[in-house]
Amino acid sequence: MNSLDKPLAGRRIIVTRAPEQAQEQIDTFARLGAEVILLPMVSFAPPEQWEEVDEQLRRLHLFDAILFLSQNAVCSILDRCAELGIEFWTLQATSRLIGAVGPATARALTERGIRVDYVAAKGTGESLARELGPRLAGRRVLVPRSDQGDERLRDALRQVRAEVTEVIAYRTREPAGVDSGVVALARRGEVDAIVFASASALRNFARAVGRTELVEISQGTSFVAIGATTAGAIRSAGARVPVEAEDPSPSGIAKALIDHFARPSVSARRA
Description:
alpha/beta, Rossmann fold, 2 domains, 5-stranded parallel β-sheet, 43% helix
């Protein structure tokens, strides 16, 4: 039986994030008693060409705000600034606004010595844009993003008449390899939950197991979606998504899992 301080005890959970992003999530679940298995379903690469990024980085002083949507965007932009000899931190002496999509992204900035002026309350790019809307009306905004980012943040910014410049700061790719042993556990229904942080992770997992088997796995294993976009991708694939974590932080995902497993029809599923 699960103890009060180990509410995920006896649960086996697969985390599909890239290794460099997964540790805090893994540690949080483990502290709550879960057996956590890493199965990376995405990897990251630099943009194919740096020219567009470099052009905008040399024009940083012309932007009123810079919005970071991921830790990857932070690392890519700040590393590139260092390579170009651009002192990003000097923007802090101006009135430019630095926004972050969530606590992990904000922490990636502060660890590099960058002050964060605003962190989205709901942890999504669209929320960040809507929450900052009045402050960004008519302003020039730079958004470093993945090549597979969606359009909703840009559209939300343009609704408040912000002048938006997006640059591809990194590319999201399939993992170099997939652990067949972990996939076999999922196929046999020997895990309680699989956590998907992005639509890309879901699509790559579907390629690894096959679309038909993806649907079958979701019947006996709880798919956890971080955010509405990921949940929509899972449903579009025909799979069930009984857990949708609105709070994308590791503690928020853990709470969603704990609440889910506390339901009588779910808690008795595994012996």
